[in-house]
Amino acid sequence: AQKSRIAITPGDGIGPEVVAEAVRCLETLRSRHNLNLEWTRFPWPSHAWHEEHGESMPENALDQLKAFDAILLGALGDPGPVDDPQRYLLPDSISLAPLLDMRKGFDQWVCERPARLLPGARQYLADERAKDIDMLVIRENSEGEYVSQGGRLRKGTPNEVATQMEVFTRYATDRIIRYGFEQARLRAGERMKQGRTRQFKTLDGRTSESQVCIVTKRNALRYWGDMYSEAFEEISKEYPDVATHHELVDAACMKFVQCPWAFDVVVASNLQGDILTDLAAVLSGGMGVAPSCNLNPTDAKMPSMFEPTHGSAPDIAGQGLADPTAMLFTTARMMEWLGRKDPALAAAGQKLFDAVAADLAENAGAQRGTHEIGTAICHRLESN
Ligand code: IPM
Ligand code: MN
User: Fold this and answer.
1) So what CATH class is 1-109+291-384?
2) Predicted complex ipTM
3) Is the CB of 99 under 6 A from ligand 1?
4) Superfamily covering domain 123-284
5) In the chain, where does the domain assigned CATH 3.40.718.10 lie?
6) In terms of pTM, does the model score above 0.90?
7) 288 phi and psi, to 5 degrees?
8) What is the tens place of the pLDDT at every residue in 282-305?
9) How many C-beta atoms surround the C-beta of residue 72 within 10 A?
10) Ligand 1, from 12, 94, 100, 292: best to mutate by most atoms within 8 Å of Cβ?
11) pLDDT of res. 339
12) CA 57, CA 37: separation in Å to the nearest integer?
């Protein structure tokens, strides 16, 4: 197969620490399985870069990244050194913009955030059924509340008005919903292979192996809510084997805590998906284990971006305390994605996933540092 190339952007805070462990695992996999894989590091910590250049990444960052098959990102966002009185004065828009620029610039219109409570992960819910939590939240990643349209009128006066527009197109709605149904089928197929089954009810009362739940706030935000619902209805007819379900976002929050095991695939708008996936991350054991990816499934020339759900965690940065598990699950997903071009990479991704999951299962509740966890997982990869 052709060589696959990864751009690695460690970013800020704990980003470089967890990325270092991902790179060690990639090195181990590459040499052990002779993978045709290479990577290039782009050290663009937003604070330092900003101080020097007034921006958090070089102006041509996207052009540089475009040449790669995938981007592996640690975390972005840096309030500055703890002893700096200017701390937190760096505008968020500067340190975070690259993330949103990449999603937009490479049309990464799908954000996949699985939440599965794997053995060994911290179980926040007391209910025994929490062990069955296994959902995939699919966040619309290209528009909606994140279009950044609006402004501030009469800024700084008592009569100031801020407007923030939300834009939903039928085009982006259809494609994300269809993607959700496709994932539901794939997941049911995967479960079948592993001898796991789940039962949902279709609208006409049949049982089904999979389900898609659409989330809106249709009772208050009528226009997009209605459009989402109609698109969902129509597209669901192409997937009679998949059960369907509609939740309002507030009720979805409640049910994520009350009965998260009842969800399979969940499709949500950009902002609602953002909020729901922090909640879902906790259901799966916390930010330390929650992977994420930003995909462009339609244009193979555009790199997809893989970053854990967590941020740069400045409070624990530089201490070797961050859990690299989320980053490593994210890396495994990246390898699976690259496997579309080179099946050897998908196989390596599966090995990585299995090693991380086994490490988690065997070290439930253990207090271990970033490097210690990475080392244990590398050892597993060497002997598997
Ligand atoms: C995420 C983050 C970002 C988002 C922020 C950092 C802009 O919260 O990836 O979930 O809102 O998308
Ligand atoms: Mn978020």
Assistant:
1) alpha beta
2) 0.99
3) yes
4) Isopropylmalate Dehydrogenase (3.40.718.10)
5) 1-109+291-384, 123-284
6) yes
7) -65, -15
8) 999 999 999 999 999 999 999 999
9) 24
10) 100
11) 97
12) 25
